[in-house]
Each structure stands twice: as structure tokens, then as C-alpha cells.
Amino acid sequence: MRRSLVTAGVASLIARPALALAQSDIVQLTVGFPPGGPSDIVARLLLDAGLGEAYGRRFIVDNRPGGGGMIAARRVARAAPDGHSFLMTPSFLLSNALVYAQPGYDPLKDFTPVGAIGSSYLVLAVHADAPFQGFADLAAHAREKGPEVSFVSPGAGSHHHLAGEGLNRSIGVRMTHVPYKGEAAALQDVLGRQATCGFFAIGLVQQHVGAGRLRLLAVAALQRMPEVPNVPTLREAGADHPLFDIVSWFGVFAPARTPDAIVRRLAQALDAVLGKPAVAQRLAEFGIRPWRLAPEEFAGLLVRDLALWKKGIEATDVRLAL
To answer: Which residues form the signal peptide (predicted)?
Structure first.
């Protein structure tokens, strides 16, 4: 999707004295997960591709793992709106705000959307040596063993966690949820066979599937995906839940009340980086489809997605407390 931003180019925006920021040249792009996970990888890809140069300041990735991304979200929500603190987050920003009684932020009121980077999707994966050739085998095993069967996630309240709870509801089982501080850590326990299964971003597991270490049982999407055309959707496999239809995304946010000039400045810089063919290719390799949404378009998406998340979460009856 193409953006509809103001027509002024990145260079002219950066050069305007009226948009000068505070004295420090350091800008923090805060990520709510440890290094090595999808959010961290996407953030570092943006920086390596020249986001700082396009914006006119030096960026650093500030990893603040914990709380399924909520620690990072709260930090940026409370930061000064001066163009030195931004949040790079997956759509957990919305789901956490609905499943936790006190998330510590309001996703619509405490942030200003800068731009959507792209969309991704989740796949249900097991170890390649597990005795499940297809989704039906895992479902039968879960019905027999109940809570002895576990599913991992990068944090309670994450899309991955809620997809697992949706799976429990849709096929009438009680698999045990095991949360981690990040998707990479969760994946290690499936690879090490300490956990039965998990939902993961396709880009994180593709290499392990290709190397014969993981097997994919289903895709949490409305239709089959071109990267894994032989893997059925959950609905095709016999599981149906509203949470399986929600598209995962990555986006950049500023604290609320950040001046529009600063938001536009970063939006233009982000668009310039995402427009590079090498960046689009790298994102595609990681299973992410670039979106390049303008701030206004992204804001509209948030409102629509929040309603979808609310419907899906109500169908799982998941409520969490810190």
C-alpha cells in the first residue's frame, strides 16, 4: 500500500530549521523484546538501511523486554514528545491493552501513529521429530493429554498467546500456556522439545523448517500463504476462531502530543527507507509484506483492528493481571 503524505521530500524536511529538535543527536527506537526476535530484527533493519540518516539524527535500538511489550510501551508513552523517543512494536500493543486490567497505557490516546512497516502472519509449529504429521494428530493428542500438552508464546497477551487460547476454545482442549520474554526464547524450547508447540511469525521459523528441525501444521490466516502453500489454514484444518483472522503488523509510534512536524519528519524518513528495494526484499525474506501506511491511514487501521481484537478476545474470555 502506498502512502499519501505531504509532497515535500525527506531532504527538505530535514533541512528546515523550524523542525530542529533538542540538542542531543541520539534518538531511541524502543523495542519491547530481546535481541534476536522479529521486532528487534525489523528495528535493526530499518536503522541499517539509513533511518537515522533520513531523519537527521543518530538512532539506537533500546531493548526493553518484559510484559509482552508493555514495559517498552509504557516507557515511550511517558517519554517527552520531543522526537527523541519512538516505539517499534508489533500489534501486541492493541491486544495487551484489552487483556490486561491495567496495561499502563491507552493505545489510541497515549501514542501518535507514525507509520506501519508491514504485515506478517503466524504459523503453528512443532518439532520435526514430534509424532504429529498434521494438525489432526496434535488435536487428538491434546484431547487425550490435556494440560500436559504445552504451547509457548513471546508473552502473555501477545497475538501468539491469544491464538493458542483461541485454539484451545475452538477444538475443546486445555493446552497449557508457557510465556517467555520474546519469541526467540519461546522458539528455543520447541526446538529443544521442552514444549509441544507454539505459534510463531513465519519469518522466524522458515530456516528451521527448511533445515528439517520444525514442522508446520497450520497457518493462522484467512487463506494459505505463498511462502508455505502446502500448509493449510487453521479453518481448513478444523479450527475456527475470530483471532485466526487478525493480521499481525509492525509499526512505529511516537508519544502522544508529539508535534505534527516531527511525526511527519519520521514518517517521511520511514517511507524513504521502506521504499528501498533491498529493504523490501529483506522484509519479504522474513515473511513481512511492506505496507508503508501514512500516519492517518495507520490511525484508521488501529481503530478497526482494536474492534477486531476486542471481538476475538471476548471469544476466548482471557483476562490477565500483572
So the answer is: 1-22
